[in-house]
Amino acid sequence: MKYGFIGAGNMGGAILRRALSDGAIGASETAVFGVQREKLARTASELGITPYTDVKQIADDCEILIFGFKPQKFAEVLPQIAASYTAEKVVVSMAAGISISYIETYLGSSAKVVRIMPNTPALVGAGMTSVSRNENVTDAELNSVKAIFEALGKVSEVPENMIHTVIGVSGSSPAFTYMYIDALAKEAERGGMGREQALEFAAQAVLGAAKMVLETGQSPEQLRINVCSPGGTTIEGVEALQSLNFEEVVAAGARAAVLKSKKMTK
After folding, report:
1. Contacts of 74 (CB under 8 A, 6+ apart)
2. Which pLDDT belongs to residue 9?
3. pLDDT tens across 77-132, in order?
4. Going by C-beta distance under 8 Å and a sequence separation of 6 or more, which residues neighbour residue 35?
5. 171-264 maps to which CATH number?
6. Which pTM does this prediction carry?
7. Is 3-160 in CATH node 3.30.1360.40?
8. Segment (H or E) for 259
9. What are the boundaries of each domain within the chain?
10. E strand or H helix at 209, and its extent?
């Protein structure tokens, strides 16, 4: 037994399913812990993995432990994990506001800790996940962790002090993008387009624009310039957004998320 998922809610469950379906981890080497026994039994049966109802036991049996429980549960669950934890095991936490040093206070200064920050597009294999490690985690161990999350999209290592910035730029920003897509679709509806078709046009435009940034090597500014013909429709729309401080409004949303992340960290 190698991979132990302690909690498999919305994000933890999505990670578990994507990693299994992508082949990043095998069902025979994967276990899951849950407190809702009927749900746990269904999940384990569906995925062909081993269910645990004792958190100390899964911590004892697995080499990589993925924490999928809520931040407010850490003070309750970490002492139970500490009873079985040994320093060769790697723990992976995705909880907002829970620092590596906080986990170390329960598991010890020799603990191997990786902190991740995924985002919701991971649910469809298009996520962006940051990974941050303490000095006890080797390159080989980090690569084993990264392989899990590469099944969900892109992965990039950052120092832990950058995790607040990650929350602003990718952790929370999908919500801002959904607002943008919805606004475009609603305007298309006002122009007579049906809701479903309007969403398809708006969402595909955002998807395509994102791929242009990632695949052409050109800056977002240059790509914007490329499509703004003088006197054309696009530059008219861009100038209208600039007059409303569109870029500053978006930046303000990211800053607010960053500040909240800093306030809630322990």
Report:
1. 67, 95, 98, 102, 103, 106
2. 79
3. 999 999 999 999 999 999 989 999 999 999 999 999 999 999 999 989 999 999 99
4. 53
5. 1.10.3730.10
6. 0.91
7. no
8. helix 246-264
9. 3-160, 171-264
10. helix 195-216
